[in-house]
Amino acid sequence: MFTRCLILLFLATLTVKAEPFTAFGDGESLVYRASWGIISAGKIVITAKAETDKDGKALMRITNAMSSRGMVRGLYRFDNNAEILIERENGHMLWAAESGVERSNKTESRTDFDYAAGVAHHVDTYRPNRNLDIPLKPGDEPMDLISALVQTRNWTLKVGESRDVLVHFGRDLFPVTIHAQGIEEVDTPLGDFEAMVLIPRMEKEPPRGLFKRGGEIKVWIAQSGAHLPVKMQLKLGFGAATLTLIEHTPPTTPLAATKVEPKP
After folding, report:
1. Each residue of 90-115: pLDDT tens digit?
2. Distance, C-alpha 199 to centroid of its chain
3. Residue 237 burial (10 A CB sphere; 0-12, 13-18, 19+)
4. Of the candidates 243, 84, 89, 101, the residue with the CA atom closest to the CA atom of residue 168
């Protein structure tokens, strides 16, 4: 459960301006060790690959592979593979799909975004009662959860500043405000980092999901080098789940060179 919760809500106004997608560079990957307290619980691998469609439109495919490990897997089997396709020029998420196994139950769903029609179509293969058309208001620019988190490294928020993002997860959209709380030192297998602590809060609407239950999420963004998200944490009343960066493969092309400027 901790992995689903952690990937659920590291979340930011519904009128965020469209901007180029710069969260990842082509060929970049991030590998995180998941733990519950001192117990190693799983692994998450995030990869990015630049593509072009038949019309020459620049796209980015983000793949997230998650699995529980060790003692935790004996208690809670979780395997999930998710893919998101994004237009690099304007950051539009075209579709998001996932499939896997949670305990003994198969999961599979896909959400297709139709910005012209103002709707996102969510289809759940094994639970059709959860199929839903999600309204998209003019100006809505949802991001998938992982990309929203990683994109924060390009925002260069200063302590006390905040930024709003609309985050997509499953069959819901979460308007979340991400606050820059302060600088802390983080120790990881990749070294020690001075990192900005970012805390997402659901303030624009009545809290839902984890936020309603009083959980807290933190993300630590290194303030040097590639400004990597070196640590993420979900605190609940009965403990904390943590993701720690253990491997990073830089983009095959420097990150700045992968940015696509909007057309005039």
Report:
1. 889 999 999 999 888 999 999 999 99
2. 14
3. exposed
4. 84
Please state the pTM of the whole predicted model: 0.83
How many helices (H) and strands (E) would you count in the chain? Answer: 3, 15
Can you name the residues that pair with 244 across neighbouring β-strands?
Answer: 33, 231
Q: What's the whole-number average pLDDT of the chain?
A: 83
Residue 169 · residue 145 · CB < 8 Å:
yes
CA–CA gap between residue 48 and residue 123 (Å, rounded): 24
Taking phi first (over 0 means left), then psi (-120 to 50 degrees means alpha), and beta for anything else, what does residue 90 get? alpha
Q: How far apart are CA 219 and CA 209, in angstroms?
A: 19
DSSP string, 209-251: GGGGGT-EEEEEEESSTT--EEEEEEEETTEEEEEEEEEEE--
d(CA 138, CA 155): 24
* Cα–Cα dist 15/224, whole Å: 30
pLDDT-derived band at 208 (thresholds 50, 70, 90) equals confident
Q: For the range 222-227, what are the long-range contacts, defined as Cβ-Cβ under 8 Å and sequence gap of 24 or more? A: 222/153, 222/186, 222/193, 222/194, 222/195, 223/183, 223/193, 223/194, 223/195, 223/196, 224/193, 224/194, 226/153, 226/250, 226/255, 227/153, 227/154, 227/156
CA distance 62 to 29: 10
